[in-house]
Write a structure and sequence with these properties.
Elements (H helix, E strand, L loop, with lengths): L1 H10 L1 H39 L5 E5 L16 E2 L2 H6 L4 E7 L1 E7 L13 E5 L9 E6 L7 E5 H7 L6 E6 L2 E13 L9 E5 L1 H7 L5 E2 L1 E6 L5 H9 L6 E5 H48 L1 H9 L4 H40 L13 H25 L21 H24 L3 H33 L5 H10 L1 H39 L4 E5 L8 H4 L8 E14 L2 E8 L4 H4 L4 E4 L8 E5 H7 L6 E6 L3 E11 L9 E4 H4 L10 E6 L5 H11 L6 E4 L1 H44 L1 H9 L4 H37 L12 H18 L1 H8 L3 H5 L3
Parallel strand pairs: 5-10, 7-9, 16-21, 18-20
Antiparallel strand pairs: 1-12, 1-13, 2-11, 3-12, 4-5, 4-8, 6-9, 7-10, 8-9, 14-22, 14-23, 15-16, 15-19, 15-22, 17-20, 18-21, 19-20
Helix pairs in contact: 1-9, 2-7, 2-9, 2-10, 2-20, 7-10, 7-14, 7-20, 9-10, 11-12, 11-22, 12-13, 12-14, 12-22, 13-22, 14-20, 14-22, 20-22, 20-24, 22-23, 22-24
């Protein structure tokens, strides 16, 4: 049976290639996801290990709860006197305090250097004995208030040289410094894409707004003292509210936080891989179904000469196993390249992902081969089992008509599932906030389509047969009807990918509409100041002069942080209360915005209902730096999409609890009687020294936000195209097998006068009909799922539902074109069938 399986595999090399390709795409997505996440994890491990390699113990303030470094939360700065306390402790060789914070480097052309997704860091330089992987590639350490050292990556990007004057924007203003050093981190040029401006400690304290404070104290143990011993010794002399941890623990905690954050990213990519594998399983199942039907006489002969049903099944499963193993090996190799491709896609939308040499772990290898083999074998089991129903007597028959179509029970069961799934999606869309019901309803509807698919294929064929009399449509329609199961399986493979693509398109369109509603409905300001980078902020020093302008009536600053309430992390915004209602309409549900003053908080209405609190009730917000603070509810709001916060507090409550005082946005209201365009131009001119600040009117803000949604949609669609590629391979595979199966039919068609062009036309029409069936069912199901999903994401800011009709229509048209393109090879092959050989083929 092994020899038979190998012979069957090599009998049609094109079929073998297409089948392997269908599995390989899904496998490569799985292995690529693991390679990318493991490589990123490896990069962070190396970074944290390198940066702390020279530090035995770190002294820092205790936090109110465990923080994730990826959120930007950090312990509260300590008084600088703690450095002396630590230095005097027994077992300490060197102790050096350090600070870090925000600093934005400006290039020679006045443009801010803002890496996508990575922070812009200001830091103090430490003692060489504590430097670890930190080193000076060129120059020397900065000393004095006018010197700076910059990471090698930024120096290369901006074209800086030693001695250049470099402008830096920081929390309290902007300064000019002389570049005296170029910093490296081991073999890498930057802190995983971040920019770094390094100063001596006094200058760094001024730049980050922590004069007389240190964020942590790095300590090196005296000879013969282990990090653990020094940590325990320091614990006895440290003041209350501080702690000592080993440098190794700091590195492990930082790396673990990043890996946990990457877990969500990995799961999202694995979802796309699952879609590709599901499509591939349909292709494999369809391929083996056709192969078993074509080998019916061969299987009967094997049974006639003594092969058991188990042996015949084993032969088919063996073929599937070989395909799975080969696909796993190729997919593992391709996955390494795919990981680099995904990283490049993310970089295009402004998200730079750190990397190092590819990390291929054992679990990646096991997953690649396991997925390849398991998916292929499972998809081939049903066709393999059907071989047991082949009788040895079938070998004596000239032709064995294969039953097609479906029974009445399956037809009604499939229709019932489709109706139930559609009803579930309608109810989910009506009720809202039902993500799990949306998922279950979509799966039920798709299961119904799988069951009733052959009937749908026959229905489409009937319409094409009656509606189009020429151009090969009638013959193509009848071929579809005769092989409706094969046509349905091929179409549904395409439908899977288009269902997800259409659902994403509807969700993205709803996000675009919601952004517009949020700006037009919740915004009353005339101008909005926002930071240009995703990991940046606005210096309050830039905003202060605006308050004195006669053409501006109100200036409202917004600052954000994360707090913990009732065991859950939530966003909180601190803002100016003066002029607040002139720039924001938050749709007050209870209480009033006028009641927002020190000691009170305004809460999102849904959150208030979940917590069971109302106006006048106490609620405890736990800040990372200062711990719990109990405030009284002044009101509840229903429109918080624009400010993206669950809790609102006054600036006097925000400032003492959060060290960073960078603004996330500033809302401006112009004075009555002033011209909008003139005021905007004047504000842009007033902020010329701060090129990281964008000045937008509501229309521009809406357009920019919608552009970000379009970028996200483009990224998701690009990832989903892999699933569509698998479906296209399935169409090609089905047509190739169909051409081989109908060799005699095509020869007879040529013998009675059919031209090669007519034969090619028939094959193309079949492909178009299958593509249209997949497109129409996929787009219809995806649109319904997208509407329900948009309603389910109401808490995430989607307040309006929009169905992009033109976009969905384009998907259908493109699917028809894909059908034409997929049929090019099979159609040419069909048109070249030798007439004499074909009419003698059995």
């Amino acid at each position: 049976m092994l020899k038979v399986s190998l012979r069957n595999l090599l009998a049609n090399k094109l079929r073998l290639f297409l089948t392997i390709a269908a599995v390989t795409v899904g496998v490569s997505f799985v292995s690529g996801t693991f390679v990318l996440s493991d490589t990123m994890g490896k990069a962070f491990d190396q970074l944290y290990a390198g940066l702390t390699s020279g530090t035995d113990v770190v002294v820092r303030a205790k936090t109110a709860y465990d923080v994730d470094v990826t959120t930007g939360a950090a312990p509260r700065p300590m008084d600088e006197s703690i450095v002396g306390t630590v230095s005097a402790a027994p077992g300490v060789q060197v102790a050096r305090g350090g600070v870090s914070g925000f600093a934005l480097i400006v290039d020679k052309h006045g443009k801010p250097i803002q890496p996508g997704g990575a922070p812009t860091i200001a830091s103090s330089v430490g003692d060489p004995q504590l430097a670890g992987a930190f080193s000076y590639r060129q120059g020397q350490a900065p000393a004095g208030p006018h010197e700076v050292a910059i990471d090698a990556g930024t120096v290369k990007k901006a074209g800086f040289h030693l001695g250049d004057q470099v402008d830096v924007i920081y929390q309290d203003g902007r300064g000019t410094f002389t570049l005296v050093g170029v910093v490296g981190f081991g073999k890498t040029d930057s802190l995983l894409g971040a920019t770094l401006a390094a100063f001596d400690l006094p200058t760094a304290q001024t730049v980050v707004g922590k004069t007389g404070k240190v964020d942590q104290v790095d300590v090196k143990a005296a000879k013969g003292i282990s990090p653990g011993q020094l940590r325990d010794a320091l614990a006895g002399v440290l003041p209350a509210g501080t702690e000592a941890v080993t440098g190794q623990q700091v590195a492990a905690d930082g790396s673990a936080s990043v890996r946990n954050a990457m877990g969500v990213f990995t799961k999202v990519l694995l979802v796309f891989a699952g879609v590709s594998l599901l499509v591939g399983s349909f292709v494999i199942w369809n391929t083996f179904n056709v192969l078993v039907a074509q080998r019916r006489r061969e299987v009967a002969l094997l049974r006639a000469v003594g092969a058991t049903g188990r042996q015949v099944i084993a032969g088919v499963v063996m073929e599937a196993t070989i395909i799975g193993v080969v696909s796993g090996a190729i997919g593992l190799f391709v996955g390494v390249g795919l990981a680099a491709g995904i990283r490049s896609l993310l970089k295009l939308v402004g998200a730079e992902i750190p990397t190092t040499s590819p990390a291929i772990e054992l679990r990646t290898v096991v997953a690649a081969f396991a997925v390849g083999v398991v998916v292929t074998v499972l998809a081939a089991l049903a066709p393999a089992w059907s071989t047991t129903r082949v009788s040895p007597m079938d070998a004596l028959r000239d032709a064995v008509p294969a039953a097609d179509g479906i029974g009445l029970v399956r037809r009604w069961a499939g229709a019932a599932l489709v109706v139930l799934g559609a009803a579930g999606l309608a109810l989910s869309a009506y009720a809202g906030n039902a993500p799990w019901w949306t998922m279950l309803s979509t799966l039920a509807a798709f299961a119904g389509l799988v069951a009733v698919g052959p009937a749908l294929a026959q229905g489409m064929a009937h319409l094409a047969d009656r509606g189009r009399r020429g151009g090969g449509w009638r013959m193509a329609a009848r071929n579809i009807a005769r092989n409706s199961r094969r046509a349905a399986a091929t179409a549904l493979a395409l439908a899977i990918g288009l269902t997800v693509v259409a659902a994403v398109a509807v969700t993205a369109a709803s996000m675009r509409a919601s952004v517009s509603d949020a700006v037009s409905g919740g915004n009353r300001s005339d101008l909005i100041l926002k930071p240009a980078g995703v990991a940046s902020g606005l210096s309050p020093a830039a905003v202060a002069p605006l308050r004195k302008r006669a053409d501006l009536e109100d200036v409202v600053e917004l600052r954000a942080t994360t707090v913990r309430v009732d065991g859950h992390d939530s966003s909180v915004v601190g803002l100016d209360t003066a002029g607040l209602e002139k720039v924001l309409d938050l749709d007050v549900k209870s209480g009033s915005m006028a009641g927002l003053r020190p000691g009170t908080v305004v809460v999102d209405d849904k959150t208030a209902r979940v917590l069971g609190i109302g106006v006048g009730d106490p609620v405890t917000l736990t800040f990372v730096e200062t711990g719990p603070r109990t405030l009284r509810v002044a009101g509840t709001i229903t429109r918080n999409t624009l400010i993206d916060a669950t809790y609102l507090i006054s600036m006097p409550d925000f400032t003492p609890n959060v060290t960073s005082q960078l603004d996330v946005a500033v809302l401006l209201k112009r004075s009555p009687g002033t011209d909008a365009a003139s005021v905007q131009k004047a504000v842009v001119g007033a902020l010329a020294a701060y090129p990281n600040i964008t000045v937008s009117n509501p229309e521009e803000l809406t357009r920019d936000a919608q552009h970000s949604v379009d970028q996200l949609l483009g990224l998701v669609t690009a990832l989903l195209l892999l699933a569509v590629v698998v479906a296209i391979l399935g169409i090609v595979n089905t047509l190739v097998l169909s051409v081989v199966e109908r060799t005699r039919e095509l020869g007879l068609l040529r013998a009675v006068g059919g031209t090669r062009r007519q034969v090619r036309t028939v094959v193309r029409r079949e492909s178009v009909l299958m593509s249209l069936l997949g497109a129409l069912t996929g787009v219809a199901l995806g649109a319904g799922a997208g509407v329900a999903l948009s309603r389910a994401l109401a808490d995430q800011g989607i307040s309006s539902v929009s169905v992009p009709g033109p976009t969905l229509l384009v998907y259908v048209v493109v699917a028809a074109l894909v059908g034409v393109l997929a049929a090019i090879g099979p159609a040419r092959r069909a048109s070249r069938v030798d007439v004499l050989q074909a009419i003698t083929t059995e």
